[in-house]
Amino acid sequence: MAKYVYDFTEGNKDLKDLLGGKGANLAEMTNLGLPVPPGFTITTEACRHYLAEGAVPRGLEEEIAQHLSALEARMGRKLGQSDDPLLVSVRSGAKFSMPGMMDTVLNIGLNDESVHGLAKQAGGNERFAWDSYRRLVQMFGKTVLDIDGDRFEEALESVKGARQDTDLSAEELQRLVETFKGIVREETGADFPADPREQMRLAIKAVFESWNSGRAVLYRRQERIPADLGTAVNVCSMVFGNVGDDSGTGVAFTRDPGSGRQGIYGDYLQNAQGEDVVAGIRNTVPLQDLEHIDKDSYDNLLSIMKTLENHYRDLCDIEFTVERGKLWMLQTRVGKRTAAAAFRIATQLVDQGLISMDEAVQRVTGDQLAQLMFPRFAQDTGNKLLTKGMNASPGAAVGKAVFSSPRAVELAAKGEDVILVRRETTPDDLSGMIAAQGVLTSRGGKTSHAAVVARGMGKVCVCGAEELEVSISGKKFTAPGGVEVVEGDVISIDGSTGEVFLGEVPVADSVVVEYFEGAEPEDELVRAVDRIMRHADSKRRLGVRANADNPEDSARARRFGAQGIGLCRTEHMFLGERRQLVEDLVLASDKEERQAALDALAPLQKSDFIGIFQAMEGLPVTVRLIDPPLHEFLPDLVDLSVKVALGNASDKDKRLLDAVRRLHEQNPMLGLRGVRLGLVIPGLFAMQVRAIAEAAREVPGAQPEIMIPLVGAVQELEAVREEALGILAEVGVEALIGTMIEVPRAALTAGQIAEAAQFFSFGTNDLTQMTWGFSRDDVEAAFFSRYLELGIFGVSPFETLDRDGVGRLVRIAAEEGRRTRPDLKLGICGEHGGDPDSVHFCHEVGLDYVSCSPFRIPVARLEAGRAALAGHDSDTR
Ligand code: ADP
Ligand code: MG
Ligand code: MG
After folding, report:
1. Distance in angstroms (rounded) separating the CA atoms of residues 271 and 323
2. β-pair partners for 492
3. Does 107 sit in the ligand 1 pocket, CB within 6 Å?
4. What is the pLDDT of residues 126-166, one digit of tens each?
5. Which of 296, 234, 209, 224 is nearest to 15 (CA)?
6. Looking at CB atoms within 10 Å, which of 106, 171, 271, 749 has the fewest?
7. Quick one: which ligand is closest to 333's CA?
8. Which residues surround ligand 2, an ion (CB under 5 A)?
9. Residue 149: burial class (beta carbons within 10 Å; 0-12, 13-18, 19+)
10. Nearest atom (ligand 1) to Cα of 249
11. Are residues 444 and 470 in contact, defined by beta-carbon separation less than 8 angstroms?
12. Are 849 and 566 contacting, i.e. CB atoms less than 8 angstroms apart?
């Protein structure tokens, strides 16, 4: 029979799939001998069963009962027993941490009788007992009974007034419990459940159900966490941080999650319970202060932090409680961190001998590297500094101040950049945080909801800017000196320094970009990046090339580490003043006129290629012959029609209008473009090939590769190739001739096409469009958000290569192409070439290189190294 419940002594950290992260790590800490309150974990399997069947699996209730009895025996008290109650917390905990997403209920087991027993346990401390009880009714009401939390908050506020929650007397708290119970009765039509076992049963069910709450669903989509994992439930005996000033609760990191520096980072709140410390109820004190409050607990905590770091060999974050001088560990996990900290920590751990360089490369991601390449604010711009808060999540963000999440979503949908300003954020602000460029709060520390969630999303965040007086209802904030910022005013926030500026601050390059541009690695962060990049480069098998079509981009690509150009588009070479030559080409009425137009284009093309070959200094350059339909280069139909109708059109305009009408296509994406143009317009491709060849002849060492777009049949390629070989021989230059694989038919007949191609380059933008039958420009705005909502895909197939569909075509083409021609070179030049997951896919199917925009090259290099270290063997080699 399936086992659905594990005692904390039975699990370990590697059982996250089954026990969730929290449960697995509670078990790990228990087995390390750390002070964890005893308890047990109900598996994710039980949750999945419950969500699928609408009922808990058979045997679960009995199993829970057995584990509860064992816990009671061990603690020497029974759950909710009137004179000496055992209390428990019921805590969610999925495989991936979802901050604030799932719900936890504390103090289960309290009712009108056991509240007296609890007071007795605490030496007659009535205040503490009633405080615990009001918390239970409040949390239970909100999360289990689904009552609007504001109802309880308001009731609490009205009793509290300007005082703090700790100032409430036992009598006031007792009355508050009555009020809260009244709210429950009013909202649900039933009494607050007094039976401790019933409380526990309902709380467990509520945790199961919270897996599918709107917030959890949204967070998972944002973080690309699979929707079908389910959550585990932890039942943990209570310890109390709210007994008095010798008690408290706190959170800590084993090093600074913002910078990676070692030290003591955390917040502590005396006489408090649960989430008080992150909810900004009262002002927390820095963890260092615990040394003066309770030296024993502090020393103990530091030594446990050290044990955990050495054990997990990584930064850990920790939740703990002190109950009357005794320290208890309530949670740990490998902590989230900023991108900069990820690089610093990885190399620090290498230097401490805790991990290898291979592991260090695995500990950072391409997305993190990309974040470090984001611009930062320019210095000394003269913008007014409004205030300085905490630097909670780095980067530079500029936008209009908005004061509610719905408003943030609304303006962002209109394409506006906004900064979400709140006193503090709650899980309900998630949609606004996603929509905003950055988040600014006036309350809460580095471990507040805003900070944790923003860091996880890589969103800029300044939190705890306490000098700001935020008025949500007035849609404004007031900064020191009386400066008012109202909704719509532009502000700039710097998540790396915590600074908040009025107006738009211009942004400058990041130090990491400067390093890639060739600056010496001086700064500690840049040195870490340098070490990791070198190691990734030494391990990767995939080559990395750039998509570039002018000398400046080519040169930058080389500085960033490109080993060639994988896609040099030629269409821009027909723009600007040269459009007129294309018009002549289209309007040519005979062979001579056409040739004259081509002859005029040839030297311009040639000089373009010379510049690029020179910039690449002997590295391969894949030049794609012209791809878009020619009407894209002609004037606009409406403009021409108006001109003609108004009677001020030249003779040429009239002929152009005819041509534009003649060339109009219903589906240009599927029309006269790519190789089809080359076959239909005599001399066009020949002119380009000759320009490439002559340019190559003039630049010593140039390595041109000629790429034919949109081929679907080997016959198309053969015809073009024949002509090209003739020209190359005439000019006396050698070049590879290959094709793009971007039409499904090309992938499916790759074995034949490889007869005529020396290389394939997967054009995964078109291949994705044609495989899905999506016209990208039309579908992305029209219905992609709906498709994402429906879970039809977890991420746009234009962003990350669709392994199952498009990827299958890539595999087929790679395998069959190599069967025909074992030395066939394989690359990818769609935008996917710079996407981390897609790079891994390219490694796995055995491509030779990826090609991406110059700015993404470092990301592709890093991910190629990570892919090689992840050990997926190439399967076509
Ligand atoms: P989250 O996943 O939101 O972090 P937790 O289950 O960790 O939720 O619970 C939140 C907080 O509640 C913990 O950090 C801890 O302070 C408190 N808590 C949970 N269980 C207990 C317990 N058994 N005793 C005392 N405090 C607890
Ligand atoms: Mg929580
Ligand atoms: Mg927690």
Report:
1. 9
2. 398, 501
3. no
4. 999 999 999 999 999 999 999 999 999 999 999 999 899 99
5. 234
6. 171
7. 3
8. 100
9. middle
10. 16
11. no
12. yes
